[in-house]
Amino acid sequence: MKLRTRLFLAAFGIATVALLLAGALVTLSLQRQFLDRVESELVAQTRLVADLVARRAATPTVAELDAEADALGLDLGARVTLIAPDGAVLGDSAEDGAGLAAMENHGSRPEIVAARERGIGLTRRFSTTVERDFLYVALPVAHPAVAFARLALPLTVIDEQAASVRRATGIGILLALVGALILAWVTSTAMSRRVAVIAAVARRYAEGDLSRPLRGYGDDEIGTVARALDASVHELGRRLDELSRHRVLTDAILSSMAEGVLVVDNRGQVRMANDTVRTMLGFETSPVGRHYVELIRHPDIAGQIAAALDHGESSRREVTLNTDPPLVLLAGTAALEPAEGDAGRQGAAVVLHDMSKFRQAEQVRQDFVANVSHELRTPLTAVRAAVDALMDGAGKADNRLFIDIIDRHTSRMDRLVSDLLRLARLDAGQETLGVVTFPADALFEAVETELLPLIEERRIRVTRRIAPLAAEITADQAKLHDVVKNLLENAIRYAPADSRVVLGTEPQDQAVLLTVRDRGPGIPSAELKRVFERFYRVEQSRSRDPGGTGLGLAIVKHLVGLHGGVVTAANRPRGGAVFTVRLPQPERPVASASEEAAEEAPADVSQAAS
Ligand code: ADP
């Protein structure tokens, strides 16, 4: 039911009940008053009749008395009966002659009995004589022949008059009800309209629109309540705003963190997990709402969380996850202490720090030191032995031999130290690029000239295949010379004698590809990536030891990377290795790959990340 209907019904109902009650009371009291007045008037009239009769002659005839009764009855508008002391009716305004003579003895009529006993008789009863309800008043008369004078008023007359009183009251009530109806309607409409305005504002607030209403709420209690609610809604809105701003900020911080963060509540259910922790622990679906025990497989981390939840312990531990590659994590846990007034802990937070790179770098550094020491020890031992032999005074012919040994190993150490220094310079970013455009042919020519003794020694045929669209290269010429020299030197060293090594260029999108192909043993697929690592040598070549430092390809990778390019190693389908350097070129026209490149599609390729 609508509020307006309710208010209307309530107001109208109350008014109706009140009016009906008041009407009933008024009617009753008016009726009472009216009856009292009629009775007292009838009594007064009866007294008047008794007085008049008392003054009559002492012995009137019945005819005289009846005429008297008739005259009085006419004057008073009531039935007048005169009764003898024995109860015989002497005169009656309602009966004449024979009728009068036939009338019953009235001595036992209740009003007469009462008048005889108490001096006045007042009854209301049915008259058998005239067959109607009457109000009777009887009084004793001080007359020798007439003992009682009785007046009777038909009740219908009284009732009619009482009915008119009731009618008047009824009309009054009806008019008042119409007024009440209009008033109830007007007030309930006004009230419900105000409540509807407040409800509309509340609905708007619920939908998130917190703009204030244009109209005021009024000055009464409803207005006060509405204003108080309005103020609390705005305060709440302000706090929610602040909270969501905080949340956005927290989310931004958490998602940009390199550390993985996971928060569980006091029942162990995940409340929050940032992207990093999802990646680290390999969650495929959102972990929020799930129990940490089913999510975190590593017993140490799960144990740390349990300790934080159960005993409030904070801990830090390094754990290794069995992923590929293994992930080394520093897991820190802390209990979330309860908020003020709360009992028990709120939960626990886990912060995971990826230590893998740090551990890897440490490993690389340790390996590097071990490798350098190892690489230096071999030539140093040889030199030491040769020096010892010389000091022991070996023969003249042997001297030459020992001096050769010393020469070979010191120059190897020299090469090793200069390669190390070069790598150190490159690592420190001390080498800058001086980019120029030069013909590829000139570059190859210069490298071949420098390596001519080795080429001749190993009887290698070096051929050049320069694509017309890649005849010119834009790069740092000296650094690219070192790159090609390193690659060609390796090709010559590892290729069999009398074989062919091809130096080539090809255009590719916005780059030029420099290739060095040989017919050597190639590189086992598993090692293709690793040949660019410092001191890494394929096992077989190590045993053969063709005199390299193991740093050449690492330097190549660095130099190419400096140009924004990449170097890859691959095996040729019909045997041999191919090293490809991809150098980005400024605005080089697009050209399709040459047929040679299609035929030489590598069997497997590795890429040295630059
Ligand atoms: P090194 O000075 O020993 O040649 P590099 O860094 O130049 O060191 O090469 C690393 C390893 O890669 C070599 O030891 C060799 O095993 C392998 N390698 C390089 N070039 C070739 C090639 N053309 N054919 C086969 N193996 C090669």
What does this structure look like?
With 610 residues, the chain is of the alpha+beta class. It folds into four domains: 3-162, PAS domain (Beta-Lactamase, 2-Layer Sandwich); 257-337 and 345-354, PAS domain (Beta-Lactamase, 2-Layer Sandwich), CATH 3.30.450; 360-427, Signal transduction histidine kinase, dimerisation/phosphotransfer (DHp) domain (Helix Hairpins, Orthogonal Bundle), CATH 1.10.287.130; 435-608, Histidine kinase-like ATPase, C-terminal domain (Heat Shock Protein 90). The protein is 52% helix and 19% strand. The protein is built from 17 helices and 18 strands. It has helices at 3-54, 62-76, 97-102, 110-118, 155-206, 221-255, 275-281, 292-295, 299-311, 356-391, 396-427, 440-450, 452-458, 477-494, 539-544, 552-562, 595-599, and strands spanning 79-83, 89-92, 121-127, 132-140, 148-154, 260-265, 270-273, 315-321, 327-336, 347-354, 435-439, 461-466, 472-476, 500-508, 511-517, 566-571, 577-584, 604-608. The strands form four sheets. Strands 12-14-15-17-16-18 form a six-stranded mixed sheet. Strand 6 and strand 7 (270-273) form a beta hairpin. The longest helix is centred in the N-terminal third of the chain and has 52 residues, at 3-54. The two termini are 78 Å apart. Residues 590-601 have low confidence and may be disordered. It binds adenosine-5'-diphosphate (ADP).
Chain-wise SSE layout:
Blueprint: H1 3-54, H2 62-76, E1 79-83, E2 89-92, H3 97-102, H4 110-118, E3 121-127, E4 132-140, E5 148-154, H5 155-206, H6 221-255, E6 260-265, E7 270-273, H7 275-281, H8 292-295, H9 299-311, E8 315-321, E9 327-336, E10 347-354, H10 356-391, H11 396-427, E11 435-439, H12 440-450, H13 452-458, E12 461-466, E13 472-476, H14 477-494, E14 500-508, E15 511-517, H15 539-544, H16 552-562, E16 566-571, E17 577-584, H17 595-599, E18 604-608
Parallel strand pairs: 12-14
Antiparallel strand pairs: 1-2, 1-5, 3-4, 4-5, 6-7, 6-10, 8-9, 9-10, 11-13, 14-15, 15-17, 16-17, 16-18
The structure holds adenosine-5'-diphosphate.
Adenosine-5'-diphosphate binds at residues 490-491, 494, 518, 520-521, 523, 531, 536-538, 541, 548-554, 577.
